[in-house]
Amino acid sequence: SELLKTEEIISSPSQSEPWTVLAHKKPQKDWKAYNPKTMRPPPLPEGTKCVKVMTWNVNGLRGLLKFESFSALQLAQRENFDILCLQETKLQVKDVEEIKKTLIDGYDHSFWSCSVSKLGYSGTAIISRIKPLSVRYGTGLSGHDTEGRIVTAEFDSFYLINTYVPNSGDGLKRLSYRIEEWDRTLSNHIKELEKSKPVVLTGDLNCAHEEIDIFNPAGNKRSAGFTIEERQSFGANLLDKGFVDTFRKQHPGVVGYTYWGYRHGGRKTNKGWRLDYFLVSQSIAANVHDSYILPDINGSDHCPIGLILKL
Amino acid sequence: SELLKTEEIISSPSQSEPWTVLAHKKPQKDWKAYNPKTMRPPPLPEGTKCVKVMTWNVNGLRGLLKFESFSALQLAQRENFDILCLQETKLQVKDVEEIKKTLIDGYDHSFWSCSVSKLGYSGTAIISRIKPLSVRYGTGLSGHDTEGRIVTAEFDSFYLINTYVPNSGDGLKRLSYRIEEWDRTLSNHIKELEKSKPVVLTGDLNCAHEEIDIFNPAGNKRSAGFTIEERQSFGANLLDKGFVDTFRKQHPGVVGYTYWGYRHGGRKTNKGWRLDYFLVSQSIAANVHDSYILPDINGSDHCPIGLILKL
DNA sequence: CTTTGCAAG
DNA sequence: CTTGTAAAG
């Protein structure tokens, strides 16, 4: 296998570095607040084969890189991921070569999908130090491939699907498209791939699945990302098809947000949502060593999340 | 008269404060470089009645105020002007009340003209501690009053016209409008006012009149602001009608730019243009005590200029 | 190169 | 509130 040995991967400083704990001020009902310092398992024993995947909606990659304080470079040095999945790169096709030059050595395989219908909109990427067996852009299943929302990479023992699910928009004007066309297409794509290998689905799924996944469930029943339609579609098209929400499995009853809107200073007051996920095929759910959130990493309205998968 | 006494006006720190001298690196032919430290006359004797007017194309007033380093407030404290004329405020009508609140005490009379055809475009204002006898927006002469390009204030002994002349645009696509419609309309407006009182015309006239007024005359013969059409129109519609270019009269053979394009780092290399003027009726040309440039004031692609007029 | 408004989230 | 566009200078 091309996957790296444990000692190379698990040298991540993320459990020794001083991640500041996000104060989850108002855990609701009897929910606990996720604490990345205390709620992560001990490192795997040396020699265990595994892969470390990270996912981050960067809300404009060029904006993020200007910041410098959290380039992919520094994230790599801290987290030492094997594969990084990005959403909302907002790159145009013409920007990609320039951006590739900023990648650090070792991450030699990167695959960029850009919107060709709206410039500077949406966009996804997979950046990897492992060379995939194959890569596919979009689903090929219908005409929904113009917004750069899906990249799929095939590895030895699994498919990795990185996606940025369409936002239902102000006034929910894109809700029916989202549910009836997009979610269904994605679900079919996954099922198709799963016929040959287990699937890891990650990205900004633009849905807070349960009440625990949003700071104010009552007030957001008609907000894009928490409508009953989106939540049911998430259940029916993903979970009911045998996909496991790895964070929720590992941390039932724990509040762990991955998104805080800029509009109401949400990050300071922890008015967050869990919109970013790792879902995995049931057949590999037991291989998940850790599914975690890094809420203290700034530079976007979303924070990165990670998955350590034993192979 | 409502105009202030000399001791109140000429307490300006501008001749004692350390204005850094702009290095005019390549004076052309036998032109001298304007030096605001050395080329200004001594203060007027105490008790002389005068008015101090400043003009500044601010290239977006809200952007400038964010800066804070050169708000109108600080400019007022350093220059102690009586009247400030702004161009390219880029304000909308709805922004004006908000902006008025930022004015410092004493400047209680302000008159704002905003573009109503293109939002956030153009826009002029007169801010004064002297209450004008009357104020007029636009010329009233034709249909050229939708872009907020002219404010005229009447004082005891003169009219003050503040204008932002339309740029002829990339590809000179607005050149014929500029010459045939706009310059002519402005000229008629001035002549009309001059029938009753002398006129002070100031603002961004968007024309470098002579070769001395631009860093690279040869290379800009078809650039907006230095076409022969604009230069001749400037001569025919303004100077030939009896208006005196006060800076040029005071400093013949002196290079004094007021604008440096952002596009080619023009301010560092002093690739500038003189686009901002005080023109006065011949009948009061001898009353001009000082017509000067403040090239070291940043915050815009134009710098402010000043006029001290004896009354 | 920078400001502005606009769409989008 | 912030990221992208585009128009304008």
Automatic annotation (TrEMBL), chains A, B:
- Specify whether Magnesium is a keyword of the entry: yes
Please give a single GO biological process term from the UniProt record. Answer: base-excision repair
The residues the entry assigns to the signal sequence are none
State what protein this is by name: DNA-(apurinic or apyrimidinic site) endonuclease
Residues under site feature: Interaction with DNA substrate:
302
Question: What Gene Ontology terms describe what this protein does at the molecular function level?
Answer: DNA binding; DNA-(apurinic or apyrimidinic site) endonuclease activity; double-stranded DNA 3'-5' DNA exonuclease activity; metal ion binding; phosphoric diester hydrolase activity
Q: Which Enzyme Commission number(s) are listed?
A: 3.1.-.-
Q: Which family does it belong to?
A: Belongs to the DNA repair enzymes AP/ExoA family.
- Keywords for this entry? DNA damage, DNA repair, Endonuclease, Hydrolase, Magnesium, Manganese, Metal-binding, Nuclease
At which positions is Mg(2+) bound?
Answer: 57, 88, 204, 206, 301-302
- Entry annotation: catalytic residues: 164, 204, 302
Q: Which organism is it from?
A: Arabidopsis thaliana x Arabidopsis arenosa
Transition state stabilizer (site feature) positions: 206
Query: What cofactor requirement does the entry state?
Result: Mn(2+); Mg(2+)
Q: Please verify whether the record's keywords include Hydrolase.
A: yes
| Residues shown, of full length | 219 to 529 of 529
A GO CC annotation recorded here is: nucleus
* Marked site positions, Important for catalytic activity: 276
| Cofactor: how and how many bound | Probably binds two magnesium or manganese ions per subunit.
